Inverse folding.
């Protein structure tokens, strides 16, 4: 009977986590059991490949790990990405040196930077070059390296080497997924390593992630977020999705309004 009860609780926990990242304290109160019991439940679920452990809780391990192409991503959450980009642009000051990561949300940020004065943009994002090449007040530095056609960004040892010779005031990163306490998840180790290098070269870190990315752990390469950083997401993010980020001491959150409200 005890085993059946435990299994039933763990299946219910999976259901709760499927709607967003869940923390140990909330699960303990929900089931009326100790936090140590919940931690054992989460450990077993993680061992079975169903969830990944996060800061104070767990997130669902998704089975679909297919990476979307750049063309596909351009049409996904488009309004949310534009709103996030507008809010991100407000964090930029005249005279800043910026690092812009590959991805569609950072490409949207580049469009918002048109007309800004005295900026230096360092990027591996090919789309950013086309957007900002005619801006007279914005200096551009392209990080050389191998072209990753799936994301139309440069990548690899040469990209990291050229980046190591520069520093920036702010870095704006995208991600396939984002889990509080674990960091950014990506399709390849090369992408994860480059993002870590970008963060190391910047004074301030911003992660641009729409609500669909929060709590997503469907890729296997991870970039830790150990320093203080700012999440910029959209108003479609639910309270359950935001809770693990709000509880983490290193994370600040900015919400871009898109006509949706968090539930």
């Amino acid at each position: 009977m005890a085993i059946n009860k435990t299994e039933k609780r763990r299946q219910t926990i999976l259901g709760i986590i499927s709607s967003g990242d869940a923390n140990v304290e909330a699960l303990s109160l929900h089931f009326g059991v100790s936090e140590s019991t919940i931690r054992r439940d989460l450990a077993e679920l993680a061992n079975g490949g169903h969830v990944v452990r996060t800061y104070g809780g767990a997130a669902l391990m998704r089975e679909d790990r297919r990476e979307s192409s750049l063309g596909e991503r351009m049409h996904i959450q488009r309004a949310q990405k534009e709103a996030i980009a507008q809010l991100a642009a407000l964090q930029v000051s005249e005279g800043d040196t910026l690092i812009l990561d590959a991805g569609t949300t950072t490409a949207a940020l580049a469009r918002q930077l048109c007309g800004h004065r005295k900026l230096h943009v360092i990027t591996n994002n090919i789309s950013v070059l086309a957007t900002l090449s005619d801006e007279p007040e914005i200096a551009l530095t392209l990080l050389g390296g191998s072209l990753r056609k799936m994301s139309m960004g440069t990548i690899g040892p040469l990209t990291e080497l050229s980046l190591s010779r520069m520093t920036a005031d702010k870095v704006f990163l995208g991600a396939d997924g984002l889990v509080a306490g674990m960091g950014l998840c990506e399709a390849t180790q090369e992408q994860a390593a480059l993002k870590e290098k970008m963060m190391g070269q910047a004074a301030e870190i911003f992660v641009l992630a729409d609500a669909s990315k929060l709590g997503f752990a469907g890729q296997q390469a991870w970039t830790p977020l150990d320093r203080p950083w700012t999440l910029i997401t959209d108003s479609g993010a639910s309270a359950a999705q935001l809770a693990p980020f709000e509880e983490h001491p290193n994370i600040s959150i900015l919400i871009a309004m898109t006509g949706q409200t968090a539930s």
Q: What stands out?
A: The chain has two domains: 2-60, 70-256. The first strand starts at residue 22 and ends at 23. The CA atoms of residues 18 and 243 lie 14 Å apart. The chain has ten helices and 15 strands.
